[in-house]
Amino acid sequence: MFLKTFQDLKDIIVNKPGVYDVYLKTNEPVSEEKIQIWESLNGLTLPSDLKDFYLTTDGIELGWYSICNEKTSAAGLIKINKLEDFKSIKLNCINLDEETKNDDFEVFVNSFLGPGFNRWPINYELEKCLNGATVIFVFSDNQKGVFILNNDLSIHKICCTFQQYIRLAVVHLGLQDWQIWYTDDAPIPSSQQLCSLYTPERLFLNTRESHEQFSANLENGVPVSLNSRKLLNFEFSG
């Protein structure tokens, strides 16, 4: 199902005006044994739709470029990580009062997380966006789903399942910044222009409905707000 969806999407994008190049990269599927090893090492069970994806292809990448005035630029990208790159994201932080580094995030949880959260969620990197934001899959029971970790270190829910995320990525043609519509921010002007050119119906829906209204149709979620002054770096662990 996943491969056909992406191939169909590629065929659609190729026929759009102003498209310079479209490519699709797939990989050999992951074996059941490797998935079981990953689950054992991480102490987690992959959702059935995400597991089915990795049993079909070990990650996928669909990208495309637009051309204007003989200049080409990246217009869209959907790049789901390989299983080996589906790694947890942790944070290293610093106590500004004592100016001492502490790798245990839980010590400073109250000053990092917004209301409704008492710990940094169990999350794994699903995709890196063109604008530097990160799409994560959260395994925490009370927050399970696909979120975007924005550049301002806020976390916003996109949808509840991996399959829903793929559907949203497809209807947005993987346009750069499309995930930002599901945050409190707005995409940069160039991204909005691409949206108006290639997915005007999505631009209409995204500008008409607020992020909160859309989220309520899927599942209630509370964004996490972080104090970025205390952040040293992201830490990825397999």
TrEMBL record:
Signal peptide: none annotated. Residues 29-168 form the Knr4/Smi1-like domain. It comes from the Eukaryota. This is SMI1_KNR4 domain-containing protein. It comes from Schistosoma mansoni (Blood fluke).
